[in-house]
Amino acid sequence: MTTPPLRPSVPLVSGPRAEATPDAAFLASLKKVTQYYVVTGFLALLVGILLGPLQALNYAGINVYDYPVLRALLGSYYQGLTLHGVLNALVFTQFFISGWMLYLPVRDLGVRINMRFAWFSYLLMTAGLLTAAVPLLTNNATVLYTFYPPLEGSPLFYIGAGVMVGSSLLVAGQVVLAWWHWKRANPGRVTPLVAFGSVATWLMWSIAALGIVVEVVVLLIPWSLGLTSGVDPLLARTLFWWTGHPIVYFWVLPAYISWYAFLPRQAGGRIASEPLARLAFVLFLIFSVPVGLHHQYADPNISNTWKSIHMLLTFLVAVPSLLTAFSVAASLEDGARARGGRGLVGWIRRLPWGNASFSAQVLAMTSFIFGGAGGVVNASLAFGPVVHNTAWIPGHFHITVGTATTLTFMGVALWFVPHLTGKRLFGPRLASWSVWLWFVGMMLFAVGMHWQGLLGVPRRSQMSATVQNVYREMNLAVPQAITGLSGVILLVGGLLFFWVLFRTLLSKRVQDGEAVPIPYSEAISPAGENLATASLLTRRTEPLLAISVFAFLLVLLVYAPVLGPMIADAQLVPGVRLW
Amino acid sequence: MAAPHRPVRRLDHRTLERYENIWLGIAVVLLLLLFASVFSSMISGTFPLLRGTGGGHAGGVTSGRVDPRNLAATPFAKPGLRENADGSLEAFVVARAFNFEPAVLRVPAGRPVTIHVTAADVVHGYYVTGTNINAEILPGHVASFTLTFRRPGEQSVICNEYCGIGHHGMITRVVVDPPTARSRP
Ligand code: HEM
Ligand SMILES: [Cu+2]
Ligand SMILES: [Cu+2]
């Protein structure tokens, strides 16, 4: 057994050499702001997923939108869908991730950050959310979470969304600066793994977010305020997808951090290889961003050559994904064998399946295997047109972001919330039920929706209300039944989870949160502490800033020839409101 | 959190490295297979498409700009199928919330048709069920693709990009007529 690497200033509270944290007051206030981020995120998810089953019923051919109760609550199916997409995919993820990836690296590095600024970022992000919520709730921005112009929502929506996304860059700045201070104070040291992954993710996001920030600030806000006469819809879409693809890695990389660094210990195992984990994060940092055109295969006036280049770059993301599959599976096997597991696959039974936090994350990873396989289909220039904008697509991303990310965050919350608050997890068995129901529900959902998509059912369509008989000719009975059933299972699973979460949050504080340790894992092949003696891979992956400059140049290289002609050729078209 | 460790032999650094290398080999083989299939699809589909000869892939939506406020000055003024002097067929389709013009597009079976679609207001989709014809229709932009409908009959066309409150009703048909004498040389 190797000894765990020594952490610099803040000791590993969970490790064998646990000591009291030097500055309890600072840690307490860091925990508080983190808790606010996390709980705000989950509140958004709660509202968001309450709408999901209504949509699943729609895809079961059942139109519930004529019931007076729903009529009173929602202007239309599409208003509900906009809320669902924005709250789940944009708000929940961004708030949870901001808390999660502020707390971990700051604590890991033992750097003090300015707490007033940390609160300011949280409040600004929340103010952005509330601003955008007004038009969303009053049916004045029913433009879906992709808000493609020239469908024109209220300016408040674009301003609120811009402020919300923009303030995530403030969190990125806090973390990167904290890391920078740590580097200066500890020259020649290897950045601890969790901090390394967090910094890599934030750097990637900083490059990725530029597209949407430019779209919203330069194009959409002035246009919706009536200051410009229109927007070029293709230019806006291209800037949107500059961010819109890497955002999916911004959703999964924080889950990867948990899979790599914490899940092994929860399984009683060790990280297979720390240098390999670092390589994976660096490859994601480089290859997540220059690929956005693979969402625009069906768009006119973009050269097929550049579409093909983005396709090839997209496939390179398979490499870090396969590395992760190996590395995490190896660390789970290590844990299971240590617990007496035998046989080629028999060891799987010895994993701690009864621990909901663990099983949530392993189920999330399992669903990600199918999600990744479907993603290769979507990313292919030849198959893309068969599935583009069909029900296949929501089928795909509910087993990626809806499960890989969401279920991982749910599993993480089961220890993270007690750790932050000092409260005891309410109902561990109920928690187990909720995560299994979520997994089963999403797998069924994926089957139903992928199937319907292949038969030709479009996404984002209140198909249950159409008077045309195109769907009656499609033989949809079985996949529709599966989709409807999955919505009900998901509703039960989701409500159970929130019952557990809120009962936990509303219970009395019973202990010091530190009694629930962060499950830092040891490594079979550690990265070492000093760069001078570390392996080649560790040394090459350490200069994250230089690597992100390279990534940014790569992005410019593949986007300049695409955006250049679009800007030169831009033609403004006026906005319309059609809902 | 850690489970009780029994005295079993555990993986060490060296064995792990061997496994890592095996896995790296598998990943490289998978990647080579992926690249091989991508390249064959490029040779069979993408390259012909880059040269503008079709090749069976409808991914090749190509260029064209129009002013959506002045479609009257373009061939989109009269949506529908037309035969050019050289005998080639072109169809012009306008997507507008919440229908397509012409309401039904009639094409002959067995002859290549170039379809041009544009939008008059917001972004729409043009998706022909059961095929890989699937394009985003943006105002100000023309999406064009050439294809041959082989079997006579009807095919549904669905707007598959959210375009507003009537989006789910934005559905039309392509009617493929039996081949005419001219198309059977
Ligand atoms: C109770 C669980 C859920 C159910 C039953 C559900 C169901 C659905 C359905 C049926 C659609 C397709 C609607 C349409 O295209 O017309 C949809 C869209 C979507 N869902 Fe979910 N969902 C659930 C949870 C989630 C979660 C956890 C996330 C992400 C964290 C998520 C993110 C999205 C997004 C981004 C869309 C696309 C919205 C759009 O196309 O504008 N959903 N959901
Ligand atoms: Cu439409
Ligand atoms: Cu539509």
- Give the beta-strand count of chain A: 2
Mean pLDDT of chain B: 80
SSE order of chain A, as H and E? HHHHHHHHEHHHHHHHHHEHH
Strand order of the largest sheet of chain A: 1-2
What is the count of DSSP helices of chain A, taking H or I runs of 4+ residues? 19
Taken in chain order, the helices and strands of chain B follow as: HEEEEEEEEEE
Principal-axis shape of chain A: globular
pLDDT under 50 segments of chain B (min length 5)? 53-61
Q: In terms of quaternary structure, what is this? A: heterodimer
What percentage of the residues of chain A does DSSP assign to strands (E)?
under 5%
**Computed Rg of chain A:** 23 Å
Distance between the termini of chain B: 78 Å
Q: pLDDT average of chain A, as an integer? A: 90
Textual characterization of the structure:
By secondary structure, chain A is an all-alpha fold. In chain A, 67% of the residues lie in helices and 1% in strands. Chain A has 19 helices and two strands. In chain A, strands 1-2 form a two-stranded parallel ribbon. In chain A, helix 1 packs antiparallel against helix 3 and helix 6 runs parallel beside helix 9 (274-287). The model of chain A is unreliable at 1-20 (pLDDT under 50). With 185 residues, chain B is of the alpha+beta class. Helix content of chain B is 21%, strand content 30%. Chain B has one helix and ten strands; from the N terminus they run H-E-E-E-E-E-E-E-E-E-E. The longest helix of chain B has 38 residues, at 13-50. The model of chain B is unreliable at 53-61 (pLDDT under 50). Chains A and B meet through helix 7, helix 10, helix 11 and helix 13 of A and helix 1 and strand 7 of B. Bound molecules: protoporphyrin IX containing FE and copper (II) ion (2 copies). Protoporphyrin IX containing FE (HEM) binds at residues 49, 52-53, 55-56, 59, 81, 84-85, 88-89, 92, 144-145, 394, 398, 401-402, 406, 459-461, 487, 490-491, 494 of chain A.
